[in-house]
Amino acid sequence: MLLQTKNLEICYGKIPAVRNLTIGLEKGQIIALIGSNGAGKSTTLKGLAGVLTPSKGQVYYEEKEITKLPSNQRVPLGIALVPEGRQLFSTLTVKENLRLGAYHFGELEFNKRLEEIYELFPIIKERENQIAGTLSGGEQQMLAFGRAIISNPRLLLLDEPSLGLAPLIIKEVYRMIEKIKNTGITIILVEQNIEIAFEITNYIYVLEAGELSIQGSPSEIIKNNEIKKAYFG
Amino acid sequence: MKINIFLSENNTKMSIWMPFVSGICILLLAATILNAVLDNYSIHIITIIGIYIIAATSLNLTNGHTGLFSLGHAGFMAIGAYTSVFLTYKVSLRAAYNLPVLPTILGGAEFQWPFLPALVAGGLIAAIAALIVGFPVLRLRGHYLAVASLGFMIIVASLAKGMKGITRGASGIQVITRYTSIWNVYIWVAITIFIIWRLLNSNFGRAMLAIRESEISAQSQGINLMKYKLYSFVIGAFFAGIAGGLYAHFTRAIRPYEFSFTMTFFIVIMPIIGGSKNLYGPVLGATLLVLIRYMLKPIEEYLGIYGLVELIYATLLVMVMILRPEGILKEKN
Amino acid sequence: MFFGTSYILQQLFNGIVLGSIYALLALGMAIIYGILGLINFAHGALITMGAFCFYFIFSDLEWPFWITLLLAISFGGLIGYLLELIGYRKLRGSSGLSLLITSLGIYIFVENLAKLIVSPQPYAFNVPNFLNQIINFYITFRVIDLFIIAASIFIMSIFAIFIKKNKVGIAMRGISENVETAKLVGINVDQVIVWTFVVASSIAALTGFMWGAKYGQIGYDMGFMPGVIAFVAVVIGGIGSIPGSLVGGFLIGLIQTFVVSFLPTGWSIYRDAIVFTLLIIVLLIKPSGVLGRRESI
């Protein structure tokens, strides 16, 4: 198992946003966390990234416990997060954003990886010295992906990558995700747009009010009547 | 909206004036007893404590209760000091000390003001200065306000040094008549605390508290930010001016460099250490810090380790900020 | 009364020298403010410490100039590191006001520690002879003035490169924009903050030497006014803009020099008051400063 959580609980103040969560994934998979607003999907992702600290339970990564490890120490281990809303450094250039994504790399290593990212996303190379805040929505998402994978993560966490983007752009974004998946990175995806999520993922966890409700492969989930009602009308 | 601080919904006239009157009586009684019992040096210290209680409590109105961190208080004290001294200075001494006589509208060449009106005049001039300076400066927040108010204090100190014709410049003014005594200081202490107490317990006080907690939500509740900030700033300045006047007529000599950052720092930390959200916090802070000063100054001079007192103050401050940021006395509910 | 060209040029030069010192101080102040939201009042204390460190090693121990200078700068860096570790780290996340008050307390502590150790009397500040050489080249100045200007330009250039090309420099800018993003991207924020303090404090210690060399004397309270003026320079130049803080520094240096040299003698008392009057005017007219962008006041 690449990643495993056991009875994870994450609180906002005194209120648990995620309770008793036990999920896992194998290397190379791409799984999705879906659920309505406030179900705890984002919170779970932040707990896995180290942005939030769990109050109960454990997180295991590559068989080692990382539950309380702060976020900046998880990146060198191979875990990267693309947060909700992308959170780029909007006053820094594209290249500078990428540099910070691989902060713990030396200059040589960084330049090597930079070339590889440029091959994957050629548009970014064109915009190398442009201020990140002036990029279009789709380009920003591309940069956010680039910044996350430049550190060679083995586990990539994507929090609502389609948020705020036009449908055409969303298609492109998912093509990018497909590209990334093909480089062998394991991905956990949080999405509200389940149609797209179902197309690309191997396994789904459904969260409801902070707890795990159903899980299964996309085809199993689709057959489930309640899901049918809730999402497909 | 009319603000009546002398009456509020749940208080009767008695419950407001009784504490004030009895407070004054107790203070005056205590003063009389102490005066009879203690030596001059101790009375001196107690009087100084009183002056700083007025300064610290008035500062806390702006800093602690309204949340506007002003570093300009010494500037208002300077204004009060110089104004009142200029008015009360003995006519016969003016020529010898190069201090100009009063212009005709203020009484003419043969006139020197009695203490109380001069003191109040000093407070009023300080208040007017606060009104003028307040408009630009109170629009700022946090550190900008701090540095701008610090700037105000430096401007006042520079003017005191520069306007040699009136202030005698850097040499300062000496041989001031000692009008201040333990009695009038503590009457003013009672007045200051009473007024600030009433302010805090009125709509005014609630508005200031709202501004302190969050300016944005205060605004959304319809509170006119500028009006209340100004009120708080101006009233604080008035009493600072009074404290300055009392100070000048007690120490009998004032110089521009006394009203400097060191004095501001001294007053600013009194409510922080004593308790910035409590009415009596500044009282505790003033008492503690003045006592520390008078106990340690002899040691400083004897051992030649100048700066010891301020070192202790700074250490206390940093300790409070790290361990107990609200200060010793907590907020009363 | 008219001023001759050479007099004007002379004062322009003097203003640039003073402005260089202020610009360096403003730079240090700006990066700490950018990264922590803290007005580091204790910055002024580093000036005093740098000056006295140089004084004791050069004049008392009589060590060679360049080594002493290096030691004084390193000493500044060390103190900056300790300050962050002991004073400010525990207050990380506190309101800006708590940090301000604490930095005030730290300044007063260090100023009085200096007063205690070296006495309230001012000290005559000695520099190696070559720096005192007077040069007459249409205007009159000493080699130390050239040194100050050259050192400032050098430091500003190196810093400009550092902040654009070096990963720690880029991280500083990233953290200034958003510290949460910086953490999640994997930056070791604590380490970068330490570096910021060390760099800023080393520069401040150097300006202590410069100040002492320029004015010929040092005292326990020498750092207060330059330290506060540094922040005024940052505000006038524009919060959030490093070039802005440099502009602010030079502007104030020039204005102070002009006030003293072009206005009647009585006005020199107001050289500091003018700076604050300018601050209040700027805050009234354009609060974001000459080159500033973000942050509402």
The parts of chain A where pLDDT drops under 50 for at least 5 residues are none
**CATH topology (fold) name of chain C:** ABC transporter involved in vitamin B12 uptake, BtuC
The CATH C-level class name of the domain at 3-83 and 152-232 in chain A: Alpha Beta
- The CATH homologous superfamily of the domain at 3-83 and 152-232 in chain A is termed P-loop containing nucleotide triphosphate hydrolases
The named CATH superfamily of chain C: ABC transporter involved in vitamin B12 uptake, BtuC
Mean pLDDT of chain C: 89
- Distance from first to last alpha carbon of chain C: 42 Å
Strand content of chain A: 15-25%
List keywords for this structure.
heterotrimer; A: 233 residues; alpha/beta; Rossmann fold; six-stranded mixed β-sheet; five-stranded antiparallel β-sheet; B: 333 residues; mainly alpha; 14 helices; 71% helix; globular
What features would you describe in this structure?
The complex is a heterotrimer of chains A (233), B (333) and C (297). With 233 residues, chain A is α/β, with parallel strands linked by helices. Chain A contains ten helices and eleven strands. Chain A has a domain at 3-83 and 152-232: 3-Layer(aba) Sandwich (Rossmann fold), CATH 3.40.50. Chain A is 39% helix and 25% strand. In chain A, helix 6 packs parallel to helix 7 (167-182). In chain A, 43% of the residues are buried. Chain B is 71% helix and 0% strand. Chain B is globular, with a radius of gyration of 20 Å. By secondary structure, chain C is mainly alpha-helical. Chain C has one domain: ABC transporter involved in vitamin B12 uptake, BtuC, CATH 1.10.3470.10. Chain C is built from twelve helices and four strands; from the N terminus they run H-H-H-H-E-H-E-E-H-H-H-H-E-H-H-H. In chain C, helix 2 (43-60) packs antiparallel against helix 3. Classes of the chains: A alpha/beta (233), B mainly alpha (333), C mainly alpha (297). The interface between A and C is medium-sized, with 28 and 17 residues.
